[in-house]
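debug: dumping io for the single-chain case to check the tokenizer round-trip. Nothing else runs in this session.
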Amino acid sequence: MMRWRNNNRTQPAATTARLVALVLVACVAVGCSAEVVFVEDEAGTLHINTSDPARQPVFVNGVSVGNLFSAATTQQRMIEQQQRRIAALSEAVCRMRVPAADTTSIVSTDTASRDVLDMEGAKWNGAVLAGDGRIFGIPYDAAAVLIIDPRAGTADATTISGLGETGAKWGGGALASNGVVVGFPHRADGVLLINPATNTADTTSIAGFGTSSGKWISGVAASNGLVYGIPWDTSAVLVVDPVTNASDTIAIASTATATGGRWYAGAQSDAGLIFAVPYNERSVLVINPDTNATDTIAITGLSTNTQGYFGAVLANNGHIYGIPFSASSVLVIDTADNSTRAIANGVPTRPGKWRGGALAANNGLVVGVPFGSDDVLVIDPATETVSTTIAVPDSDNFKWTGGVFSPATELVYAVPSASHSVITIDLGC
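debug: decoded output
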């Protein structure tokens, strides 16, 4: 026996005729020895059911639907077994990957680039990962942008050059929404605009800030498309629109007390506020990109050290971690309630330890870049513990700054200040 059931209210005549023919053919094929039901649901999907699927299977174009389902189920089990095996092997390989720092894996593209790297002084200050995967070091004393290609393992200091021999030109950088790398004017008169697509630099389109030293040396690209420069020796936040090449400044809150080296680096929370960590200030600077207003947050239990923090990293848990320079603790900013606390265990008391930081996206760890320290700072946001077990192969002071994680290699890269090589930091997996 065979039945056709149509759950739609209306059925075109032609379609009905075709379905009747299909029912008749199916009935002849099975001899009407069992019930076969054809059902068209409201969505127009055709369902074919038999009363005894084991003895009267459904065939479509000669293929048994039951056997096909059985094969797919078996294949799914095999895939799941393979995935478990791959996961176990990946874990075993991960355990073999020892966290380490290296200064030899990035080589110069040419002799001229090697000569720039061999220069004395604070060559670059800060670095930015561009959309093409390359890392751009911001020239401080150097006359050229440092271009690191993580995939190729090369460093180039000649492609974007001729930026002047004056020291302390720019410091820190941010990737704008239009793909341009923005460098903040420290002593330079203009903002540094690096176009990775053309390998060119522009220092005049956003200018007129004067050549006095210490204006800005770090900043944040906000979600509203604007870039904010964090006040260093100045009393105002710099606001840059890289699309229109316009700029403005925002007066900071009057509660600020330090006259120089005020804040360094910041990060934007998921809620949209920018938090900048204090260097010589006694408070966290808060910038609201929606209103361009500023505020400060007093820090409970702040170390009495000046030159406190030199870097800020937003972790996956939503907290911002201040990288200790001379402070004896890691600063933790809880952006949910704007509270602060400190992680002191495991942080040495010596000055000038780390400068800049990065989030390792593959494992969620926060890295502090060694400046005067002989080891890498590693913060685990999940446990809020600190480790300094990764030694660096360079005992000089003023070694590296910045800190950029490359998804291509799962390594953190930092640009040389007084050091003569790029450092790569492998945190494992």
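debug: round-trip ok. Confidence is low (pLDDT under 50) at residues 9-31.
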